[in-house]
Design brief:
single chain, mainly alpha
Length: 188
């Protein structure tokens, strides 16, 4: 996977990925012929054919293909643990919640279950929610964590300037969005 990942996320070259084992050789074929075969394989796979096998129920994947899509990486790892190569090739959004924000979210979810019909077996009141939050140590006062919310200035200060960031900034500028500069500072 690393070979395909590195080639397909690179900003130079033609974004090809190659793998020779148990594939249909694309050696000597034109780009259009490779793309045509890849489209045929996609169609066969959508019909339930098994990749990497010859015969009636299978289809051989191309030994080379052109990556033209996008990728979304979702991880519960802290940003400091993610490889710089991946970080520099992506728009990164850190969705880390501070403890007090987690508590607010839990309280909101619990409050959604409040009903006026207190005779139902699974009903509870606002007072019930508050008592449970307090019993579990989930009151707002229990959190003393210093919070730094993401701002364009903070985001820019924590990121290295790269050619990729510059190119992404140009794309955002040319997009016509009125807030392109803020988005570039936060995500490029």
């Amino acid at each position: 996977m690393n070979c395909i990942e590195n080639i397909s996320l690179d900003t130079s070259g033609d974004n090809t990925a190659e793998y020779l084992k148990q594939t249909q050789s694309m050696t000597g074929l034109s780009k259009s012929a490779i793309q045509e075969y890849s489209a045929e394989v996609d169609e066969e796979l959508s019909k339930g054919k098994i990749p990497g096998q010859k015969g009636k129920n299978g289809v051989l994947l191309p030994s080379k293909f052109y990556f033209t899509g996008s990728m979304i990486f979702i991880s519960n790892m802290p940003a400091s643990k993610i490889e710089d190569a991946i970080m520099s090739r992506s728009i990164f959004v850190d969705v880390h919640l501070a403890e007090q924000d987690v508590l607010k979210r839990i309280q909101t979810i619990l409050r959604l279950g409040i009903t006026e019909d207190t005779s139902a077996a699974e009903s509870y009141t606002l007072e019930d929610v508050e008592q449970v939050m307090e019993a579990l140590g989930g009151t707002q006062e229990s959190s003393n964590e210093k919070i730094t919310y993401m701002t364009p200035e903070y985001a820019r200060g924590s990121k290295k300037m790269t050619v990729r960031a510059g190119k992404l900034g140009l794309i955002m500028l040319k997009s016509g969005l009125s807030n392109w500069a803020r988005l570039a500072a936060l995500y490029a």
